[in-house]
Each structure stands twice: as structure tokens, then as C-alpha cells.
Amino acid sequence: MALRKSMSAASRGFTVLESVISTLIVGSMMVAAMNVVGASETARQYGADKSTGLMLAEELMSEILAMPYKDPESGTVYFGFEPDESNNGTRHAFDDVDDFCSWQASPPQNADGTEKAGFDLWKRWAQIVRVKHDALSQTMNSETGVKWITVIVERNGREVCRLHAHRADVDGG
Question: Are 64 and 151 in contact (CB under 8 A)?
Fold first, then answer.
């Protein structure tokens, strides 16, 4: 009878080993759940960055593509901003596509040079190169009638968007 009494008393509660095992299981599940939450937040931020970066890149690309192929005043195809144009960090004096060559701003700016509010961690820039008209990825040093435009947007030093376009001198301007 004494043996039966001690077994029933032991079967009514948890042992220390059972408590440790259940604590480890619950702790492991909590770590896994927190990893899922962290990965979800990272993916959400990445998606938001991609969307914002695309908006910034499209805005600058649209501005560049709206410009004439060559300088409308002189009609020259001088590459980069012309000597009579001031590049004081703003784009408001730019009057043709290649004036944007190697232009950059961090944080991004509006065309008049004012900073875009809330974009302190962002940077965007444009690269313009001449390319062969029959091999659009082959860069050239001399005038070809086609320019390859690349707009790059970064956040915290990490590239989030890159857009490419070509601008041709099809209309003579």
C-alpha cells in the first residue's frame, strides 16, 4: 500500500525535468516566432524602399527624358553642362540631356535645388553615356546620336532602384 501511495503523489505533479523540457519547447517556439516577425518587417521595409526608390528614379528619369537631346541655345552636343551654365548643385539651369551627366544629390532634390523633405537617408544620381546606335550597350567617346541614361537611387548606401533609358537625336533636337 505504501508503494501505491507514493506513485499517485508523484503522478499528480510535474517533475523538474518535465518543466525544463516544456520551458525549452516554449522558448524555441518564441524564438522562431520572433524570427518570423523580424523577417516580415525586413521584407516590408525592403518593399517600401523599392517603391519609394522607383518613385524617385522615375521622377528624375522623366525630367531627363523631357530635355532636348542637345543644347537648344548653341545646338552643340558638348557633353556635360556647358561652360556658360552654372552647376551649383541644382538642376534648374540644365537644358539638355547630358547636363545630368554625373549629377547627384543626397538627399534628393527638386529641380529648383530644394531638398525633398523626409529623404535624409536617400541618394540619387544620373549617369549619361554615348552609345552606338546599332549596339546600345556599347559606349562611345564621340557623338553617336544616342545617349544611355541611368538613374540610380540608394537608401543608407544600399542601391534600391536602377532605371535605364535611351534618348536619341531623332528630331534634330
Answer: yes
pTM for the whole structure: 0.73
69, 167 contact by CB (below 8 A): yes
| Nearest partner of 144 among 115, 165, 169, judged by Cα | 169
Q: What is the 3-state secondary structure (H, E, C) of 32-52?
A: HHHHHHHHHHHHHHHHHHHHH
Q: Total domain count for the chain?
A: 1
The parent domain of residue 156 ranges over 41-168
Residue 28 inside a domain? The answer is no
List the chain pLDDT tens, one digit each, 173 residues: 455 555 555 566 778 888 889 899 999 999 988 988 888 888 888 888 899 999 999 999 999 999 988 877 776 666 777 766 665 666 777 888 888 888 889 999 888 788 899 999 999 999 999 998 888 888 888 888 899 999 999 999 999 999 999 999 876 54
Residue 96 and residue 54: Cα distance in Å, rounded?
Answer: 23
Q: For residue 128, what are the β-bridge partners?
A: 149
Beta-strand pair 158-168/122-132: unpaired
Q: Is there a contact between 131 and 147 (Cβ–Cβ < 8 Å)? A: yes
Asked if residue 108 lies in contact with residue 55, where contact means CB atoms within 8 angstroms, the answer is no
